[in-house]
């Protein structure tokens, strides 16, 4: 199967390399030449432009920063691509742009999926990503073997935009729960309660959640996590802020009340402004520990 892969950054590079390693004929393009050179060493054929990458593609995958990049690309590559090709956007973008991208693809006679991922750069390298897909059943069936070559779990979430909706709703839970767990450890310390003691109780009680038991923000407590590695990401706080902002954008557009989501976005924004964007998102605990009580 001939695949065009556009956007070969931290995620797209290893994803495209995995497709090539598994026998797909992959033509790649990125506006940064160095990214293209890197994947060219891993079996991806370097194209001169996005348009030339898609010319004979059966499947076109995009992995770029934001909705505007996807829509600009679709404007440029839908026409030159073979009619009937499957367009899969794996970027994390706003739900409205994802739905617009689907509509543009349909208008050009293409099939389409939004298929954002979780699992980070480690999952991209190891081909263990989770894909959350939105689009019709036929497009999902067709895209499944391609996504399976880059991930280990592929969930069909519903129609156009449903993958993006699942991604931002999940990450809103994650952002809020990490703040909740962090606040509890900050309070425990003030009360003279050992972090390990709180962990022993809460991890087996009603406070149990992934942010506590899999990804504990306190060094030396629970299984190994970025906290034990100087808060090196992992999942960077800047990306958590991006996802929380997308959730707020969607909440505003749809009229959903998400007061804790809004507060989580504000706290991650403060943390990013204070220079924490490159740290793992669990480092929010240090921001909370240093904050004066207002
Ligand atoms: P990145 O910035 O490393 O890569 C994006 C790439 O897209 C860059 O190499 C850039 O040059 C390229 N690009 C932008 N516009 C282009 C265009 N018009 N034509 C060709 N190439 C273009 O970002 P990333 O970390 O790889 O993330 C990509 C997407 O995946 C984002 O939407 C991000 O939110 C999402 N995501 C990232 C992670 C993560 O841990 N990094 C995890 C899950 C989801």
From TrEMBL:
This is 3-hydroxyisobutyrate dehydrogenase. Keywords: Oxidoreductase. Its EC number is 1.1.1.31. It comes from the Bacteria. The gene is mmsB. The keyword Oxidoreductase applies.
């Amino acid at each position: 199967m001939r695949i065009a892969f556009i956007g070969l950054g931290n995620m797209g590079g290893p994803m495209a390399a995995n497709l090539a390693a598994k026998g797909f004929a992959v033509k790649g393009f990125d506006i940064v030449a160095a990214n293209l050179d890197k994947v060219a060493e891993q079996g991806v054929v370097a194209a001169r432009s996005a348009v030339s990458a898609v010319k004979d593609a059966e499947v076109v995958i995009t992995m770029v920063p934001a909705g505007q990049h996807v829509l600009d690309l679709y404007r440029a590559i839908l026409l030159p691509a073979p009619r009937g090709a499957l367009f899969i956007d794996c970027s994390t973008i706003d739900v409205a742009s994802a739905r617009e991208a689907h509509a543009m693809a349909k208008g050009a006679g293409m099939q389409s999926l939004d298929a954002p991922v979780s699992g980070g750069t480690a999952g991209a390298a190891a081909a263990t990503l989770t894909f959350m897909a939105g689009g019709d059943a036929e497009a999902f069936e067709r895209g499944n073997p391609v996504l399976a070559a880059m991930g280990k779990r592929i969930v069909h979430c519903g129609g156009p935009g449903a993958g993006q909706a699942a991604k931002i709703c999940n990450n809103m839970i994650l952002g809020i729960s990490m703040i909740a767990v962090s606040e509890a450890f900050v309070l425990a310390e003030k009360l003279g309660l050992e972090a390990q003691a709180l962990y022993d109780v809460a991890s087996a009680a009603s406070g149990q959640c992934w942010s506590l038991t899999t990804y504990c923000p306190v060094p030396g407590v629970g299984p190994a996590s970025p906290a034990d590695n100087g808060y090196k990401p992992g999942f960077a706080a800047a990306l958590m802020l991006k996802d929380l902002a997308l959730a707020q954008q969607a909440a505003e557009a749809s009229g959903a009340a998400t007061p804790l989501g809004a507060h989580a976005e504000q706290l991650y924004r403060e943390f990013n402004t204070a220079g924490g964007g490159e740290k793992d998102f669990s480092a929010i605990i240090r921001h909370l520990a240093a904050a004066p009580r207002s």
